[in-house]
Structure formats: structure tokens, C-alpha cells
Design brief:
Chain lengths: 729, 227
């Protein structure tokens, strides 16, 4: 087939990009070469619309061993240990085929982590679905949850946390973001940079089939009515093979045979070979006849673009082939020497003794397009004025009932009970808390991790919303007693070719950057997912933040369930009564406009650090950050989890009770302390200029407001736990 | 006391079992599925996981692996063999205990704490335990125990039911049955009571920081009763 502009456009390239390819090569590419260019130059692999802005993120820090640019980020957790972690999207495939899409998303991110030599120790996920009323939502949710569980459970890696949201902006584009944390010794981290000439290039893992061809290109385009036709671009996962691959790779990594290793993820053999060569400033030569294939008569084009799962590419030390082969034979995995490193700085492919492609590596990577797309700045919306009469007929108990059973607040137990969250025997905080926590096996340390998004805030004002998510992640870690160390981000947006969407992206990146810099909470890895839109309708801007923190002595870990009657409850941080964009505004007042709550980074940092000190000194019995739904949602959850009630005394305040209890001001926590510690704790808070309100005492089995309204905890629990189970049937 | 944990391709609770056995005093060895001979053992454990991906019936391929002939011989000569979760499925598939394990009634993987009641302490596994109701942990997709009426009669006549799903007070009712198992069966013995298969994972309950400590009671008792 002779390549021309029309064929290039069918591959998702723009006319000017095709021209650039022809210029770079000084000739017309053949079809295999065109396929390689289209795979490397699509949005998913090249970050052509986002690269310029991602540079603004803070990526360095004392604890950062490896920032963005490798398979995953790496942070130092002392004693020679390091945590490798990353979050990644698998949105488009999950919408087309929810089970396989979600499963291979989980498989892909685990591979990114163990490629670096780390054994995965925890999985998390952030999933966003359309309105619960939408006809597709239920099946998508069921499929995605089964897929995530199907893969993670089989791998024997606990799923320790997550986040599930519903909003009609995801009706045509769900989001499935998967995060993995792995543990590695600092001196045994593996990278993807090839080095040395004539080193054998090894293919290991599953055989290559025709599945997933053009997967990365599919993920770089919007959906239309022909979406069903894209099913063949979704990969099929085999977690059993991945489990074998994990064990085999770790066994090989225990020795010193590997120079570089790279998993075959998006764009398969193409991107893995090119990335290794590019980083090592080398060339690579591959004999495609040697690639283990699942199907007969596969063409070079298909072999290079297949996204079959559970495959790795390794550059090995000379003479280690037999040793490596023995290990992969033991685990019943394919092993083939398919090529070697060269000094040509070209990628050269051979098939049936003929050269079928020859492309300078730098044309695919350094010379890939980079766009400074036009973007539109968003304005901070005007504040709404709440009218007293709007609040007149509202009863607190009705608000509680409606909020606790709201799809975005209700218990997600139906979901996380389908995930094995206890395998590996180190899960000390299960899903359902502020962060999941796993011990570092055999030590007194533990790592905490949380995933968060606030699409509603980001939609109202991207910059503020994005700052808020970073802060929420930081608070979720602090609430369990972990020192926040670093974050990974998954940036889910609509089309970068639309100025509004691009503006949302730019401002969210800037918001993340501002908060992450201030809190010394660097971004060490991440992923951008654009084109989350069907025809002209895009999703709300949804950056997802995955935060990781360290607990040095896991016996000091904090949970959110209330502990003992008689203990005092304090709200840390000032309640200003910001109702706009709160859950209260949206579901009780039916008000969707207005700005999100402001972020005061100084208070955020000061409050958080003060809480950590109180935890370190063992004053805090339970803690929970105040987020969606405000103080009373937080307290309700603490009551439900601890099965202890509270007598609430609203502090003197100019705010109405609704503003006090349901506003979503930031930087706040609810903490439980012993009565005998009250003086010491409050004077410590005052000394550190931290605002606090004393709001009640734990007592009985109900929430009791000013001795007038009494709501039994069992009733709250029913509201909270039934919605999802009933919905899923 | 010497124990052996068999690792099949796809086993994923083998390390957890190793940690638990060692914690309570066993000298444990990991044994590869392709080995032919078992090391000298007082107890052999088939751990949880997804042996061979469970792509055929759960446990069926593993039950035919090389080491299983030795395990079967060991069991037939009176050796103690315990299968947990996927290990239970392998025991069923290899015919060491009767019955089958079907997909959970609600067609979903389930991971949570459950209560189980011991029925029979006249065996090495439970003999000196001083309570009957334990809080254990389950994590499985195919734990729905099933057998024919004739098999059930035989199992009951021989006191082969090891543990039942129940509530915290020991009530054995359908509503406390997480997976649809016949008669709330969570674990069974062979006729001679030297082979035990059960769905719950005692190895995940050995630390008060984890889900609980009833697993510790189980393992402490186990090593003492083998001595």
C-alpha cells in the first residue's frame, strides 16, 4: 500500500504532521513507518498538547528519587526503601468494553510499577460515571468494578482505596484511573534507558496478537456514534500471565543481568523499543520474525502496533541470555532475543530478511509535534447570596438523609468488598477511610495513599478547584497520621483543540502546581487523558490526584471512627460558611452556580502540620477531614463507623446552622480528643495560630443537636449504606 | 514442627501463609508445583490464589500438577493437609475432600470478615481451642460449597463439616451465608479428619493491626496440637 496524506489522516495524523514526517525522512514513509509515527505522535504517547504546560509542575524534592519521565515516579521512604507509584487512565477502552478496559488499566499500571523493580503492594482507583439515571451507568459500573477486581484480585495485590463519583457530564465518557504503589530497595531500581552497543534486546511475556491495534490512537480521539466499531481496539487482559511475568521479572531483577527494561503498554513494541533507544541515545534493530506471535501471518505493521498485554522488552547484558531464559521458562513465559542495540540512532526493523522500516529515533521523540494550543481563561463566578427564606422550611434531618444517601457520598462498600483488600497481610486501613494504609512488610513503617478529584469545583473555577484537590489529598493523608510526601496526577479533560477545554487544562495544571509547590508535595508521575468527549460534549475538568505519605510508626495510625464516649470533638480550621458549589447548594438548594471555596495555603499547611504533631504526641483518638457535605457529613460518618453518638453544641457564630454545618470551607478537620487533654491540645492549637471550635461530646447512639433534634446512628447508617446496594440490585 | 506450602503458578497467598506459619513456630519450606517430592513435613498447606489463572474450573489444573501426587500420597498415609481458599478448591478437585465449589451466589467476588462456628473439635486442627465462634476473613469468587444429597448425608454422618458461616453469636442461618454454600458450609474434612479444606483465610487474621486475631488462636493451637 502506497502511503499518502489521506491514509495518514485515517491514522489520526493532521495533514501538516504528515508533511512534517515526509520532510524529516526526506521521503514518503511506508505503511509500517506511518503506523509507527501515528502511534508515537498521537496525543496519548507524545503529550503534544500538554508538554508545554506540564513543565510548570514541581517535580523535585528531597524525597524524590525519580520524577516524571520514567515508567513511574519513585520516592524515598528511608532505611534504603523506596516507593514507586503512578496513576494512569484507561477511560476510552473502559467505556467501550468496561470489564476488559478496566482490567487492562489495572494491569498496565501494575506493569509500570514492577518494570522498575518494585513489587506492587497496593492498588487504588478513581472511577467516574454518568448520572445514576443514565441507562448505561449501571452496566458500566458493574463491568468496571468486576474488571478492576478481576485483575487486581488475581494478581494478589490489595486494592486499598478509591473514589467513585457520578455526574451527568460522564454520561458519554466514563473515567477509569488506576494507581499502583510498589516497594523497592533504593539500590535496585530499574530504568528504561538502554546503554551499550550490541546488547541483546529481549522480548518476554505473552505472545503478540492482533488485539489493541491503534489503542493509543483510539484514546486520542473523541467518540462518535460509531464507537461500537472500536471494540477490537480494546486489549484483553490476562492477569494470570501478568502474575507470572511479575514473579519472573523480579526473579531476574534480583541478579545483575538487566541494563534496561520497559513494559509494552500503549503503542506496544513501538513505544517500548523507541523509548529505550531514545533515552540511551542509541539505535535499535529488531527482527520481527523472532517476535512470538499468537496469530499467523501477522504483518510488521500489526506486530509493531499491537497492544497485546503482559509483555516486556529488556536490554540484557551480553552472555546473560541463558540465565534469563531459564527463569522465563520456569514461569512458562515466552522468551525471545529479537534484536540488539546499535550505534545508528535509527530504529531498524527486519521481516523475512528484508528491511521494512528505518526511522531516526529522534524524529519520533524529540521532533514529535508540540503545540501551544489556544486557551481561554476562566472567570471566577460571582458569589450567590443565600436568602433566609430559602432555608426556612429545611429540616436538618432531611438534609442528612438526602446527603448521606447521595450517590457521591454514600458508602461504597458494595464496590470495595469486591476487591481483595487484605491479601499480602499488611493492610492496616481498609477502603472507606480517608486513606488506605499498608505496612512496609516486616518493618514498623507504613505508607498511606488516597485518590481524590473535585470536578464540580474545577468546573466552577479550574485554578481554585485544582488547588483544592491537592489540599484534599494532603488532608486525607494527614488524617490517618501520614506525612504527605508526593503526588501523582491523572489529568482527564475534553478536547485540547477547544479553547475552553484547553483553558481548563492549563489552569488546573497551574492550580496543582501552586498548591504542590507550597505544600512541598511534588508531582513525581502522571498521565494526561484528553478527548474525553462524545461529539461536542466534554466532561467536567477532572484532574485526579493520588497522594502518598509515610507513617514511621504504624501503631500511631489514626482512623476516622469515633472511639470513646466522653471524648471531646473539635473542628480544626475556620468555618466561614461557604455554601456555593457545596453539596448542600447543589442537592438541597438546587443552586449550581457560584465559586468553589477558596484555598488558603498558609492555613492548609499550618493546620495540617499542627494536626500531625498532635498525632505524633498521641493526643488524637480519631480524625477526619471536612470535605464534601461539610462538618455534619464528616461527623455522621465518624459516628456511623465508630457506632458512637454525639451531643452537638453549635459554637457561637454569626452563621446560620446550615452555613455552619454544611459549608465546604477548606483546610478543616474533625478530631476526637480525651477530655483530660483538652487544655493541652487547645493551648497547643492557640500557640500555633490554628483556629478551632469545640463542638460536642461523644455520647450514646445518636446525633443530638441542641437537645432538640435527635437522629439515631442506625438510621444514618441505613441512609448511607443502602443507596448503592439498592441501585445495583 | 515442619510445614510445607506449595506454590502453584498463580498462587498469591503463599507468602502470607509462610509468614503466618513461621510466626507461630513452624519451620516452613516453600515447595514448587513442579517438584516431585515433598520435603519431610508435619503439615502441608495449599495456599489461596488463582492457580493457573483459574481459567478452567478453579483448582482443576493445579490438582493435576506434579507435586499433587506426593500431596495425595501424604494425605492418604494420614499426613495433615490443609487447603485454604484456592487450596480448598484444589483439594476438592483432587478428590481429597468431597463436594465442589461453585461461583458465589451473588456472582461477585467477596472480601470481608465473617463469623464461623466450629462443629467438631475431635481433630488435630481444632482440638484444644477453647471457643467455638471465630471471626475469620474471606476473599473469593467461588466459595459456594455444593454436594449431592447422598454426599451430604455421608459428610454429616461422618462429622466432616469443619466450620459453618454464622453470626457473632454462632447462629447458623441463611442470612449469614456470604456465598450460598449448602448448609452454610465454610470448610470440611475428609473422613479421617487429617485433610481440611476451608474458604476463610486464618493467615489474614494474625495481628490486631490487621482484621483481627482469631487466626493467631487457630495457628497457636495448630502447632501445639501437632506436637
Amino acid at each position: 500500500m502506497r502511503v499518502n496524506e489521506k491514509i495518514a489522516i485515517e491514522h489520526g495524523l493532521k495533514a501538516e504532521e504528515y508533511k512534517k514526517i515526509c520532510d524529516l525522512l526526506a521521503r514518503t514513509p511506508n505503511i509500517t513507518e506511518l503506523g509507527i509515527f501515528s502511534a508515537m505522535w498521537n496525543e496519548h504517547c507524545s503529550y503534544k498538547s500538554s508538554r508545554l504546560h506540564l513543565k510548570k509542575l514541581p517535580t523535585k524534592g528531597k524525597k524524590v528519587i525519580q520524577g516524571p519521565g520514567e515508567n513511574a515516579g519513585v520516592i524515598d521512604i528511608e532505611d534504603g526503601d523506596a516507593i514507586v507509584f503512578k496513576i494512569e487512565s484507561h477511560n476510552h477502552p473502559s467505556f467501550i468494553e468496561p470489564y476488559q478496559g478496566a482490567a487492562t488499566g489495572v494491569g498496565g499500571i501494575m506493569r509500570d510499577v514492577f518494570t522498575m523493580g518494585a513489587r506492587p503492594i497496593a492498588n487504588l482507583n478513581s472511577i467516574h460515571f454518568g448520572s445514576s439515571q443514565h441507562k448505561k451507568t449501571k452496566n458500566l459500573l458493574r463491568g468496571v468494578v468486576h474488571g478492576i477486581g478481576g485483575y487486581g484480585n488475581c494478581m494478589g495485590v490489595p486494592t486499598i482505596g478509591g473514589q467513585t463519583s457520578f455526574d451527568k457530564s460522564y454520561n458519554g465518557n466514563i473515567l477509569v484511573n488506576a494507581m499502583t504503589l510498589g516497594l523497592v530497595k533504593k539500590n535496585k531500581i530499574f530504568y528504561s534507558k538502554a546503554a551499550g552497543l550490541n546488547k541483546p534486546v529481549i522480548y518476554v511475556g505473552s505472545k503478540t496478537g492482533r488485539d489493541g491495534i491503534h489503542g493509543a490512537s483510539m484514546a486520542s480521539a473523541s467518540f462518535d456514534e460509531k464507537i461500537e466499531e472500536k471494540k477490537p481496539t480494546v486489549q484483553v487482559g490476562d492477569p494470570f500471565t501478568e502474575k507470572l511475568l511479575l514473579e519472573a521479572c523480579l526473579e531476574l531483577m534480583a541478579g545483575d543481568s538487566i541494563i534496561a527494561i520497559q513494559d509494552m503498554g500503549a503503542a506496544g513494541l513501538t513505544s517500548s523499543s523507541i523509548e529505550m533507544a531514545s533515552k540511551g541515545k542509541l539505535g535499535i534493530e529488531i527482527n520481527l520474525d523472532k517476535v512470538p506471535c499468537r496469530e499467523t501471518k501477522m504483518t510488521p505493521y500489526e506486530i509493531m502496533l499491537s497492544e497485546s498485554q503482559e509483555r516486556m522488552l529488556i536490554v540484557l547484558e551480553n552472555g546473560k541470555e541463558n540465565l534469563a531464559k531459564k527463569i522465563f521458562d520456569k514461569w512458562n513465559l515466552d522468551f525471545a532475543v529479537i534484536g540488539k542495540t546499535t550505534d545508528t540512532k535509527n530504529i531498524e526493523l527486519f521481516f523475512n530478511n528484508e528491511q521494512v522500516a528505518k526511522i531516526p529515533v529522534n524524529t519520533l521523540v524529540e521532533n514529535s509535534p508540540m503545540y501551544d494550543r489556544k486557551w481561554k481563561k476562566s472567570k471566577l463566578p460571582k458569589k450567590n447570596k443565600i436568602q433566609k427564606k430559602d432555608l426556612k422550611n429545611i429540616k436538618i434531618i432531611d438534609v442528612l438523609k438526602k446527603m448521606l444517601s447521595n450517590p457521591n457520598v454514600c458508602s461504597k462498600k458494595w464496590i470495595w468488598e469486591q476487591y481483595d483488600h487484605t491479601v499480602m497481610g499488611d493492610t492496616i486501613q481498609k477502603p472507606g477511610g480517608d486513606s488506605g494504609v499498608v505496612r512496609i512488610h516486616g518493618t514498623s513503617k507504613a505508607v498511606a495513599a488516597a485518590v481524590d478529584s473535585s470536578a464540580v469545583y474545577c468546573w466552577a473555577h479550574p485554578h481554585t478547584g485544582a488547588k483544592q484537590i491537592v489540599c484534599e489529598s494532603w488532608r486525607n493523608l494527614i488524617s490517618v497520621g501520614a506525612k504527605p510526601l508526593a503526588i501523582t496526577n491523572c489529568l482527564n479533560f475534553g478536547s485540547p483543540e477547544k479553547e475552553e477545554n484547553m483553558g481548563e487544562f492549563v489552569e488546573c495544571v497551574e492550580g496543582i502546581s501552586e498548591a504542590a509547590k507550597y505544600l512541598t508535595f511534588p508531582v513525581v508521575s502522571g498521565n494526561v487523558s484528553f478527548y474525553n468527549q462524545t461529539k461536542e460534549v466534554g466532561i467536567k475538568p477532572t484532574p485526579v490526584i493520588g497522594g502518598v505519605g509515610l507513617i514511621k510508626d504504624y501503631t500511631k495510625m489514626i482512623t476516622m471512627n469515633f472511639k470513646n464516649e466522653g471524648n471531646i470533638i473539635l473542628v480544626i480550621g475556620k468555618t466561614e460558611g461557604h455554601i456555593d458549589q457545596s453539596l448542600f447548594a447543589r442537592i438541597i438548594l438546587d443552586e449550581k452556580n457560584g465559586p468553589p471555596p477558596e484555598i488558603n495555603l498558609f492555613n492548609e499547611k499550618n493546620n495540617g502540620e499542627t494536626i500531625l504533631k498532635l498525632i505524633e504526641n498521641e493526643y488524637i483518638k480519631s480524625a477526619h477531614d471536612v470535605s464534601l457535605g461539610g462538618i455534619l457529613m464528616g461527623i455522621s460518618k465518624m459516628c456511623i463507623n465508630g457506632d458512637i453518638g454525639i451531643e452537638i453544641k453549635r459554637p457561637n457564630s454569626l452563621l446560620s446552622k446550615f452555613e455552619y454545618f454544611f459549608s465546604e470551607d477548606q483546610g478543616r478537620y474533625i478530631i476526637e480528643i480525651a477530655k483530660s487533654d483538652l487544655k493541652k491540645v487547645t493551648s497547643f492549637l492557640e500557640k500555633n495560630a490554628v483556629h478551632y471550635d469545640e463542638i460536642g461530646t461523644l455520647k450514646g447512639k445518636s446525633i443530638n443537636f441542641d437537645e432538640k433534634t435527635i437522629v439515631p446512628i442506625d438510621e444514618l447508617r441505613t441512609y448511607n449504606s443502602n443507596w448503592l446496594t439498592d441501585y445495583m440490585g | 514442627m515442619k510445614s510445607s506450602v506449595i506454590t502453584f503458578p498463580g498462587s498469591n497467598c503463599d507468602r502470607d501463609m509462610d509468614v503466618a506459619l513461621k510466626k507461630f513456630g513452624f519451620k516452613n519450606k516453600m515447595v514448587w508445583h513442579n517438584d516431585i517430592e515433598l520435603p519431610k513435613s508435619d503439615l502441608v498447606v495449599l495456599p489461596g490464589g488463582f492457580s493457573y489463572g483459574d481459567y478452567l474450573r478453579c483448582g482443576s489444573v493445579a490438582s493435576k500438577s506434579k507435586i499433587m501426587q506426593s500431596v495425595i500420597n501424604f494425605a492418604k498415609s494420614g499426613g495433615m493437609v490443609m487447603g485454604i481458599c484456592n487450596g480448598f478448591q484444589i483439594l476438592v478437585e483432587s478428590g481429597l475432600v468431597p463436594g465442589v465449589l461453585l461461583r458465589n451466589k451473588y456472582l461477585a467476588f467477596i472480601c470481608k470478615n465473617v463469623f464461623v462456628k466450629l462443629d467438631n473439635k475431635n481433630n488435630h486442627y481444632f482440638k484444644n481451642l477453647d471457643k467455638d465462634i471465630f471471626e475469620f476473613h474471606i476473599a473469593h469468587n467461588e466459595g459456594n460449597y455444593f454436594c449431592t444429597p447422598e454426599q451430604l448425608k455421608e459428610i454429616e454422618d461422618n462429622n466432616q463439616i469443619a466450620i459453618y458461616y454464622c453470626n457473632n453469636l454462632g447462629k447458623i442461618e441463611e442470612k449469614f451465608n456470604p456465598n450460598g454454600s449448602i448448609k452454610n458450609i465454610a470448610g470440611i474434612f475428609n473422613k479421617e479428619k487429617n485433610v481440611l479444606g476451608m474458604m476463610p483465610h486464618p493467615e489474614r487474621m494474625i495481628d490486631n493491626c490487621l482484621s483481627g486475631e482469631d487466626g493467631s488462636l487457630f495457628f497457636k493451637n495448630l502447632i501445639n496440637s501437632i506436637k
